[in-house]
Design goal:
Length: 292
């Protein structure tokens, strides 16, 4: 019999073009992806993927079955969201980068006071969690967003380049972006390679010495504060650090909009609707928290 769970391996390979990338996306091994695909092909009795010089692509049969697999995926995600809401009545899981949680707590306390039957549960991550798959209910997100999500702009995300006072005393400071290659850099690691900061540093300072790598913005800030190198940081958190000095910027290429987002199926549920309505009345406070 068909194991519906095997369909997600087919879709991951179709979307990422390789079993390695599909495994990373599904947080499993390449061998597991290959084995589950083989199981699916055996059950169906048709070849679904084929290997090419540049990776994997779907066969004609695979292409014909893909939209049906996507419909199954969407139905399972809808089911999971409904179960999640029933299992967590009154709980709103909010995902956002770790540095802003402490700054947001006075706002959350006011929300709890206004809605005593509701509770916010933070899911802190610099990685974009998948709201469609129920990893969170609401997201504070800057940068690119999923077209499937709905929400509103609430503030601007502004970045600049910072150095510690100790670093400047020992090594000086860059006077332009072009001079960054002469300095040691603190940057994001390969798990965050698609982040705009990682891509920007690769473009403007490809030959610079990397002094430290981190997988979070908070780790990035601690690296710069340690004095091992310079690096881009959000002005909202870095300008408040007495040990840090803004040496360049703001950097226009790193500017984005902060948005409050959720899945369309959740937007009108009472807990999420109450959270959105409350945040709309706190726009000035959000701007101070997220933009500085």
């Amino acid at each position: 019999m068909l194991d519906w769970d095997d369909l997600k391996y087919l879709l991951a390979v179709a979307r990422h073009g390789s079993t390695i990338a599909a495994g990373k996306a599904l947080r499993t091994s390449q061998s597991t992806v290959s084995r589950r695909l083989a199981d699916l092909e055996k059950t169906i009795g048709h070849k679904l993927v084929m290997r090419t010089a540049t990776g994997y692509r779907l066969t004609d049969t695979g292409q014909q079955l893909r939209p049906f697999a996507e419909r199954v995926e969407a139905a399972v995600e809808d089911f999971q969201r409904q179960i999640g809401q029933r299992d967590r009545p009154g709980i709103i899981r909010v995902t956002c980068p770790e540095p802003i949680v402490q700054r947001m707590m006075p706002l959350i306390d006011r929300f709890h006071a206004r809605h005593p039957m509701l509770r916010v549960e933070f899911v802190m991550s610099d990685r974009y969690l998948d709201l469609a798959k129920g990893e969170a209910d609401v997201s504070f997100r800057s940068g690119d967003t999923d077209d499937e999500l709905v929400g509103r702009k609430i503030a601007d995300s502004i970045w600049a380049v910072y150095a510690s006072r100790e670093y400047i005393l020992r090594h000086g400071r860059p006077e332009s972006v072009a001079e960054m290659s002469r300095h040691a850099l603190v940057c994001l690691d390969e798990t965050m390679s698609k982040h705009r900061v990682a891509q920007w540093l690769t473009q403007v300072a490809p030959d610079a010495r990397i002094a430290a790598r981190n997988n979070s913005v908070l780790g990035l800030m601690y690296g710069v504060k340690s004095g091992v190198g310079i690096g881009p940081l959000p002005t909202a958190i870095a300008d408040g650090e007495p040990d840090l000095v803004r040496v360049l910027g703001p950097i226009p290429e790193l500017a984005r909009s902060w948005r409050l987002l959720t899945h369309p199926d959740l937007r009108r549920t009472p807990p999420v609707a109450a959270f959105f309505d409350f945040m709309a009345t706190e726009r000035d406070a959000l701007k101070s928290i997220l933009t500085g």
